[in-house]
Amino acid sequence: MIGGARIYLNRWQQAAVAVGSAVGALLDPRRADLIAALGETTGKPAFERVLERMKRSPEGKEVLLERPRVVSSQVSHAWDLPDNTFGAAYARFMGSRNFSPDDRPPVRFMDTDELAYVAMRAREVHDFWHTLFGLPTNLLGESALKIIEFEQMYLPMCFLSVVGGTTRFSEKQRAVFFRHYFPWAVQSGRQCTDLMCVYYERHFHEDLEEVRRRWGIVPAPAIAK
């Protein structure tokens, strides 16, 4: 399913996978496969709501119809765009961290192909959101983005990730997060457009600051070191 094999689980099996994934992800936050499994086994109602919103949105409906994928073969042209564009900013974000858009784990635990695509889309646009909100990929940045994702999709996994992430903060990081990042992320996630209904690939050539204004996105606050 979306690059992997569908696995059917009953409710008890879903609960077991969810608990095991949550424990494993807390022990090793680098395990993207466990975080993905947690999101799928706890997030079906949230993904169903996102699917309905996408069906009601003209642009979201086009995304569902054409099912674009954020993989190298479909987004590599971003590296050739002018510096001021959204696509070029995304390319810089990925290149500076040596990230590949092909590294996302497949969706395995969704009941239908349509829900599987929504779950995969949410996973693949994560780096677009990093770019748009100007968030780093450190613990503070990832935790802040999970708050935005929760405000946008109400995925339990996002809330659990923030709880798990904040337990690993130093005292100084915790103060910075709750003083600056947390209130900004809550407000930003609520005030911006429905980000799951955006056909990002069609806006690669547009000016980064212009798309931020159009979508109501306020970049992360600059924190003095």
TrEMBL record:
Location in the cell reads: Mitochondrion inner membrane
The residues listed in the UniProt record as binding Zn(2+), with positions renumbered to this chain, are H126, D127, H130, E142
Superkingdom of source: Eukaryota
Q: What EC number(s) is this enzyme filed under?
A: 4.1.1.130
Would you name any one GO CC term?
extrinsic component of mitochondrial inner membrane
**Catalysed conversion reaction:** a 4-hydroxy-3-methoxy-5-(all-trans-polyprenyl)benzoate + H(+) = a 2-methoxy-6-(all-trans-polyprenyl)phenol + CO2
Where is it chiefly localized?
Answer: mitochondrion
Q: Kindly give the Pfam families that the UniProt entry links to this protein.
A: Coq4
Q: What is its cofactor?
A: Zn(2+)
Pathway participation? Cofactor biosynthesis; ubiquinone biosynthesis
Please indicate if the UniProt record lists Nucleotide-binding as a keyword. Answer: no
Please give, as recorded in its UniProt entry, the membrane topology of this protein: Peripheral membrane protein
Q: Which GO terms describe its molecular function?
A: 4-hydroxy-3-methoxy-5-polyprenylbenzoate decarboxylase activity; zinc ion binding
List the keywords (alphabetical).
Lyase, Membrane, Metal-binding, Mitochondrion, Mitochondrion inner membrane, Ubiquinone biosynthesis, Zinc
Q: Which PANTHER family match?
A: UBIQUINONE BIOSYNTHESIS PROTEIN (PTHR12922), UBIQUINONE BIOSYNTHESIS PROTEIN COQ4 HOMOLOG, MITOCHONDRIAL (PTHR12922:SF7)
Q: Which family does it belong to?
A: Belongs to the COQ4 family.
Listed under subunit, the entry gives:
Component of a multi-subunit COQ enzyme complex.
Q: What does this protein do?
A: Lyase that catalyzes the C1-decarboxylation of 4-hydroxy-3-methoxy-5-(all-trans-polyprenyl)benzoic acid into 2-methoxy-6-(all-trans-polyprenyl)phenol during ubiquinone biosynthesis.
Protein name as annotated:
Ubiquinone biosynthesis protein COQ4 homolog, mitochondrial
Organismal lineage: Eukaryota, Viridiplantae, Streptophyta, Embryophyta, Tracheophyta
